[in-house]
């Protein structure tokens, strides 16, 4: 389970340090892809395979199923950390998430995945959502939250 929030600077080559706590659980090889809310998702191989299996079960005749599969698979890349614990964020994914070189990024643990945010996007998202967490929780009561 991934938990916590960490800030690191993306270097001039597009690399970010993956916190040691995350590295241990993520494994040697992992997947990066576009995430929802303009962040990036990092998945351990097993979690990615589970998501991929669910996406494969969606009916191809439904346009939204095709769109969701394209969204996740078209930008997905397999990565590994270097000896310093850094991983390369591909340019197309940096662009999608609004992450500039030499900028601070925020890595958040969200149970089965890690999210990578530009600092500004994370702050904006947090400012928007945090005041409404109680209301959000109330709307999810029907699913056991």
From TrEMBL:
Residues 5-47, 76-121 form the SpoVT-AbrB domain. The keyword Transcription regulation applies. The keyword Transcription applies. Keywords: Cytoplasm, DNA-binding, Repeat, Transcription, Transcription regulation. Pfam families: MraZ (PF02381). GO terms for cellular component: cytoplasm; nucleoid. It is found in: Cytoplasm, Nucleoid. InterPro entries: MraZ, MraZ_C, MraZ_dom, MraZ_N, MraZ_sf, SpoVT-AbrB_dom, SpoVT-AbrB_sf. GO terms for molecular function: DNA-binding transcription factor activity; transcription cis-regulatory region binding. One of its GO terms (biological process) is negative regulation of DNA-templated transcription initiation. Forms oligomers. NCBIfam families: division/cell wall cluster transcriptional repressor MraZ (TIGR00242). HAMAP family: MraZ. This is Transcriptional regulator MraZ. The lineage of its organism: Bacteria, Bacillati, Bacillota, Negativicutes, Selenomonadales.
